[in-house]
Amino acid sequence: MSMDSVVSIGWDVLKWVVVPVKRQFGYVISSKSYAQDLQQEVGKLAYEAEMVHNAVEVARNNCRNVYSHVMEWQAKAEKALKEAGELLGEFEKASKRCCYGTLPDPNCRYQFSRKAKDKIELLQGLARECSEFRDISFIDPAPGNVTAASAPSAKDDGVFESRASIKRKIIAALADNRNSVVGVHGMGGTGKSTLLEEVERRIREERSFDLVAKADVSENPDIKRIQEEIAYGLGLSDIKQEENVSLRAKLLRERLEDEERTKQENDEGKKKKKKVLIILDNLWKGLDLKSVGIPCGHDNKVIGCKLLLTSRFQDVLRREMGCDRDFLLDALKEEEAKRLFERTVGDKVHHDPFKSLVDEALNKCAGLPFLIIAMANVFRDADFREWKDVLRQIEMSTNKGIDEKINEMLRLSYNRFKGEDGKEVTSLLRLCVVYGVSKPSLENLVRYGVGSRLFREDSSMEEVRDRLSSLIQTLKASSFLLADETDADVFKIHDLVRGFVASVASRDDPLLVLKNHDKSVTELPKDKLKSCTSVCFPYVDMEELPEELDCPEMRIFLLFTNNESLKVPVSCFNSMRKLMVLHLSRVRLTRSPSPFQFLENLHTLCLNDCSLEDVAMISELKRLCVLSFANSKIQRLPKEIGQLVELRLLDLNHCSKLEMIEPGVLGSLMKLEELYMENSFDRWNAVEQTPPTNAGLIELNKLKNLYTLHVSILDPSVLPEDLNVEKLTKYQIRIGDVPCQRIRNGSSILELTLDPISDILQKGCIQTLLGKTDDLFLGGLNGIEQTICVLSQKGFSKLKHLQVKNSSSVHYVLQSPSHTEFKMLESLLLDNLINLEKICNNHISSNSFNALKVVRVENCNKMEVLFPLSLLRELPQLEEMRVVECHLMREIVEVDDSGKVELRNLRALELRDLPNIKNFVTNGTAPSSSTSNDQVGPQIAFFNGQQVAFPSLETLRIWFVDSIDIIWDKQVVAESFRELKSLSIYGCDKLGLSKLKRVWDKELHSQVKFQCLHSVTVSRCDSLTSLFPASLARDLMQLEELKMNECGGIVELIEKEGLVPRDVFPKLTSLELNHLPELKCIYTGTHALRWPALKTLKMDGYNKVEIFASQPENEMPLHKQPLFLIEKGAFSNLQELKLDLCGRMELWHGHSHGGEFFCKVRVLELRHFSKESAISTCRLVRSLANLQELVVRNSDIEELSNIVEAKEGPRHELKVIPPFSRSFQHLKTLDVSFCDGLSKMFTPTIAGNLAELTKLRISKCKMLTEIICDDGGEEGLVVVFNQLKYMELDGLTGLRFFSSSKCTLMFPLLEDVIVSGCPSMKFFSEGPINTPKLERLQASTEAWLRLPE
């Protein structure tokens, strides 16, 4: 051995010995520094913890749910702060004990420093985690959320291939980033609204948007309703608390602008940007988006969302709404029309003699689906003679225009309504048209129907509702009303029907529905008003009402206005002596004289959202049957209201300022059948209080006809013992402090939050209600009641929905033996029952839970088992099972008998925060196990038994379940999981025990095929080394979405133990791989894989990947392999590519241009690329011919200067971004941030190439001094940003000006300029600037901008 070798070995040994000793010694001598650092981190985290605590309290005070990961963080932070404080305290004491603090104790300081170092890292990690919180809390998922709503499958209907083609074009146009507004136009009856429903279903199925909101605009837009419908889709429930239209618009605008800001901040990991689509149906003219709350710039170009519109008129879409793309929906083709007709009429169209008349019938319909269905409904039950008669009548209108043909066709259907029943049907249809909106309110129709004497006077309100529902079904069956697919209680009336009824069917009984272009009612012909019997002002913009309207025949007068300051003149209704129904919305009514003094025949009066100075004036209307003050600003219900003895319905819902009802008023309304007081008066007088100062509940006993009651009782002590509730058939009674966001299901609802000392459950009226309630909420059971079943003496024979919360005394829901059975129960929700041991403590009757569909158990920390097998066997209807934060739960099912249970209807299973659960089912014997080459000893599978089968399960979520080794092994029941569509596994290493080694066993595919699985999400499972065995991957033909996050052990996605097909996941559209530091490749096989459906690919945080993609024939560097091994056409549909290059990853390896493989990429986001990755990156970017959006983050762009072409200027000045310049010609969005090496963005030449750029955002680039640099070019140069509308410069501390060049800058469409955090910026440009449409210039105080006038 040479001396050099000896020296080398000796040096290595010395380093091995000395370096650790030096580190250990450093712990001793630096203990004081460690103490100071630890104290500093404690202070930082304590501040963050306090901020989170305050935010959580605010959220809970507003009835919002706090995210579980936030609560988990709070617990970890509290524990870490406590331990850190104890560590500092122990160190301080130890230091004082050793020679009175003058000499250090080496052992004490060594131990402290080591612990402090670990604790500092823990505190810093928690602080970083906290900084990533964007939202602390949530309400229920937005109905518009495509993952929250289960959309029915949207299949292209073979009957309507022309529609399917347009549908595909619309979806493609919405996916194109160049389009923000897409429209559909066509004449009435072509099926525009139906087409939009199909498009919405397809979007939900493909998840191309995260949120979808929809509103019907109609001929006279109701801005407030449109706002509510959009807010409903976005989950913006706070809008209901705001009545002012402008403030509602502000809430909506902020919500949508937040999505836009999120898109811009997405690089900082704060929150994932949600893609929002707003559908506006049935526009008759341009809609002012800003008044609704949809943020937009010039020409209605929207911000933070996309719009999909329909209108009859192309000009409305193009000129007034600024559509980027619009499509004509024309009539059906001949064969399509025939198939639709045949499908509606039935088989008789194929038989003689009917067959000969089909073509003739279809010729009359002009290919309009609306008319075809109307015709088919006429013919469906008609005989041959009737067919010929109908066609003969239509023939008479052959020479008329299409409108006349439509009316003639509708008349044929209309004339089929005969007799007394037919009269009721046509009267209701007329009432729907008078209403003036496309979606009439069923509740208002009931009230108008009663007031106009549409039904027999002796009919009760309940009988009216039943009859109305029956008539609506008749009108739906005849296609005069259209069903709403999302809500069975909602229906629509087509514009063609409204036009027909208004112009043809009401000639003998004239009605008038005003439109905005009518300007003023005073401009209408006086003879028309004089003969008119019904009039509606549906959200027509009116400045004032005339002093008096001469309408002596008027019976129905409806006024809905957006002008909240509109006053009603005293004499306005003086001539309307026959008026029976009056509805005024959002108007102001001053004190007497009353505008109602001559309305002796008025039966229905609705004053909704109104401001009333004198409620007593209503008492003059002695024949009033229906009175509504819903949402109105009234503070007192005076004694005069008690004179309305004919009143059958009183609506005081949402009169939040109502504090006093005079004693005796309610008791005087002897004929009252329905009383609504939701979110309204709750200051009931106590029974024993004399004299009474307010209304008392005991007054309701006088109302012998009362059967519907909605009421809140804040103080349970005011509830009379003998309150008569036996007569109630529909009610919503809230007693105590009930959670305001609770979802209600049913018509008889009782909600009780009890005081610990309250005896309210023993009162006779409560016992009566318990026995007849179908939806029951119980909270605060903290007395002696150990089981729910004993609470009702009469049992729970009608109960369908039971929720029990925050009740420490409850040990069981059902205790055997018991006379109580839950025969009708469909949902059972148990939350925070800290002493709940079991749902049932013994064997029960087979009838008890026979109808149960939903079980949710949360925060029940004494429960060890959810169901014994014997009870599970009695739940044949079970559809959803959710178990959350039950820390002692050891299994879901305990085997207490033999045999197998098949959960045939179970669709969803969620298990979350169950640290001690190991198996779904345990039978006391040795569980089945799976062995693995990388695992010592057997692995216990979670679904390990043969006792329970899941043939219909579609959604499986397993979060923070720390004690499982493997989810499936080969012992699974063969018929299970075949329908599984969505799988989510999250945080199964939360305790650091690294338990979950596998999701699937290699041999599982021989038992179970996961052929329906379309979504897989796996997060925070550090012990996984691969996700799919190759044998399983071959079966995942329907997989559409795959996400993996923070799985530190993942080396490969597909485990190589067999071949996988080239199109391994043929339907995968979205692939996200984030923070997988050990990932090296997707699959170690040697053949290329194709990803034919992939549209979105996002990858971040993978340190071991050195080459992103390459072809098999390319020679690889030694010890390197690409993440993707691909061939031409591999990414044929990829549109969005977001990559973290980790500073050194080569984006493309090989001689071919990457553009051949990424030809459809429109959005490219790159992070952390530097010198090592620059060449391949720039080569790829240049080749992307369809690139529209480029985002560059956290990158050292200074290094790019060495590959810039010489013509761009002197090399030493080029710390700029021109390597991408050839790709800029189609670029719409450019977003650059955290690129500290960048000093200049563009030369004037490159800036001039940005012909289609609409948005420019540059932020947090510390070295950037100017955007456009002076390259010494020709004088008089003009740089035009033709399409730029939005510019933001943020956190550019070195920026001195936008342009140092003397060239002229022109921004013909620029609307918004935002400059913040640019303290060095003194002026914008050395040369002239032209900004003709600049609307907003927002600059922080430290930025002094000099812009030309």
Automatic annotation (TrEMBL):
Keywords: ATP-binding, Nucleotide-binding, Plant defense
Domain AAA+ ATPase span(s) in chain numbering: 178-332
Organism: Rhodamnia argentea
Entry similarity comment: Belongs to the disease resistance NB-LRR family.
Superkingdom field: Eukaryota
Segment forming the signal sequence: none
InterPro entries linked to this entry: AAA+_ATPase, Apaf_helical, At4g27190-like_LRR, LRR_dom_sf, NB-ARC, P-loop_NTPase, Plant_NBS-LRR
Gene3D superfamilies: Helical domain of apoptotic protease-activating factors, P-loop containing nucleotide triphosphate hydrolases, Ribonuclease Inhibitor
Name of the molecule in the record: Disease resistance protein At4g27190-like
